[in-house]
Amino acid sequence: xxxxxxxxxGRVGTNLARKLSAAxxxxxxxxxxxxxxxxxxxxxxxxADQRTTARTADIVINATPGDSALERLTDLRTELSGxxxxxxxxxxxxxxxxxxGDLCYPGSSLAEKLxxxxxxxxxxxxxxxxxxxxxxxxxxxxxxxxxxxxxxxxNAKKTVTGxxxxxxxxxxxxxxxxxxxxARATEAMILVVPHVLxxxxxxxxxxxxxR
Length: 211
Description:
Layout: E1 3-7, H1 11-22, E2 26-30, E3 45-47, H2 50-56, E4 59-62, H3 66-74, H4 77-80, E5 84-87, E6 92-94, E7 100-103, H5 110-117, E8 122-125, H6 132-135, E9 147-151, H7 154-166, E10 174-178, H8 183-188, H9 193-200
Parallel strand pairs: 1-2, 1-4, 2-3, 4-5, 5-8, 9-10
Antiparallel strand pairs: 6-7, 8-9
Helix pairs in contact: 3-5
């Protein structure tokens, strides 16, 4: 059992918390306001503030809005030191309909910015190229999806790959792209998502490799 802290108690964070707790991990979930921490969504899930969550967890997942995550997580530098930080968010500027319209860090990525700001933390980017429900139920898609992985530390990526297995991802569906700079490619994939959603609605899908 691993102590996993999730920053962000919205649909993404809560969905991940349920599946990881069902796999036997202890999960601490942290929302941005007291209203986000009223009812635990499943057993083995507790609530705490973000600083406590980052300090007490072995692995931390960033499921907070990507456009404000850099400042938020930089403020947790001490608590995140020596830990794996899994970043599943995308830093985008939304259009009038609330869907992503542009990247906050063109020519870079949130994951790269986080790694530079948190040099003592092992940042791994993954699960940011799909709708949230696919993160924990990849087998429900008609076509096998792809979970891309980017990060500088090989051991950290191996640990994250193990957690992906707990979420239902088969090894053949996981694509290790290389170091953290490769995250700019997967973060840019988010720009296709709003166009798909506007045409097809909020149906589960992932941006994947076909072989």
